[in-house]
Write a structure and sequence with these properties.
Blueprint lengths: L2 E3 L6 E3 L1 E4 L10 H13 L4 E3 L8 H9 L9 E6 L15 H15 L4 E6 L8 H13 L3 E6 L4 H14 L6 E2 L14 H8 L2 E4 L30 H4 L5 H8 L2 H7 L3 H10 L4 E6 L4 H8 L8 H11 L18
Parallel strand pairs: 3-4, 3-10, 4-5, 5-6, 6-7, 7-8, 8-9, 9-10
Antiparallel strand pairs: 1-2
Length: 333
């Protein structure tokens, strides 16, 4: 496993992060979740990403139990705040000071730790002044409960506004962005990525395999595999944007490219996002330990220019690149 700095900070994280969205306390039983975490640790992964909203707080609790006994200083634990948790009452979502403070304290208890290495705004909150949000984050840093702060799925205008306010108020600034990014979903490349580079913000990208589509397991005109995410009630909507015959046909043309590179399709997908030098880490999820081991092997892989060109040629007509696809809910969920 290789390591990269997170943005322009001094924090180093594993090139592959283990995330538990959709899986822990939802798609897989706890013993399987613990086996996947164990496989991640065995592969050299030290960075673990979760969020309070995953399985309505239970995913954090499962991760906390799975990491018991590990040396805390050797891990980087990330979580997020914004979406509704608990009963979803009027102050149970958003980026108000009240919700941030209460959510952070609850996350620390579930994760069984005194601090998180990275605390992230899971979306942009149009209903709370940025000054309020950034001051609350800064106070958590001063209290030692959070080491660094970041955001997920913010657009370039929102990032610029936050960085300006933080500078003017003398507050700690964001060091990380967590966007969706893959061979098929490149919406950050024209606006968000240049803005992040300007401010020394690194990416921890989610869905590098496009919800499993880039593994090649979904075939055009064929039923979903019974054990796939798309076959589940809570997973179908996640992959729906990619389940189109022309796109699935193009993905099948990646098979000989992966073979040429000596990689599996999953490894090719993860390695591709890591070719972007502003990507600090790629988040992988898993429902089986062997999936973790396979994907983790993409760390350190260098794709030759002809491989990158071949991928672009094959996928040219099915790539999503419109920066307007980076959106947050206009009102709190």
């Amino acid at each position: 496993m290789e390591f990269r700095y997170l943005g322009n900070s001094g924090l180093r994280i594993s090139e592959i992060s283990y995330g538990n969205w959709i899986t822990h306390a939802s798609q897989v039983a706890e013993d399987t979740a613990k086996a996947c975490v164990s496989a991640a640790l065995d592969a050299g992964i030290t960075t673990f990403d979760t969020a309070d909203v995953y399985a309505n707080t239970e995913a954090e609790a499962v991760l906390g139990r799975a990491l018991v006994g590990q040396r805390r200083e050797s891990l980087e634990i990330f979580t997020k705040v914004y979406f509704p948790t608990g009963p979803g009452k009027h102050n149970d979502s958003g980026l108000s000071r009240k919700h941030i403070m209460e959510s952070c304290n609850a996350s620390l208890k579930r994760l069984q730790t005194d601090y998180v290495d990275l605390y992230q705004a899971h979306r942009f909150d149009y209903n709370t002044p940025l000054e309020e949000t950034l001051r609350a984050f800064d106070d958590l840093i001063r209290a030692g409960k959070v080491h660094y702060i970041g955001f997920s799925e913010w657009d370039s205008t929102q990032i610029e506004a936050a960085m300006t306010i933080a500078k003017d108020m003398g507050l700690d600034r964001f060091i990380s962005s967590q966007p969706q990014y893959s061979m098929l979903w490149r919406v950050i490349e024209t606006e968000v990525d240049p803005t992040c580079r300007k401010h020394g913000i690194g990416h921890i990208v989610w869905s590098p395999m496009a919800q499993g589509v880039l593994t090649g397991k979904y075939l055009p005109g064929q039923p979903f595999p019974a054990d796939s995410r798309a076959a589940t009630d809570n997973g179908h909507f996640l992959v729906n944007r990619f389940i189109k015959d022309d796109l699935l046909e193009a993905v099948q043309e990646l098979l000989p490219i992966a073979d040429q590179a000596g990689l599996t399709m999953a490894q090719l997908a993860v390695a591709w996002v890591l070719q972007n030098d502003n990507v600090s880490s790629a988040i992988i999820g898993a429902s089986r330990p062997e999936q973790v081991t396979e994907a983790a092997a993409a760390s350190g892989v260098v794709l030759e220019p002809e491989i990158m060109s071949a991928i672009d040629k094959v996928l040219k007509e099915v790539i999503s690149s419109d920066p307007r696809l980076t959106v947050s809910p206009e009102g709190r969920p």
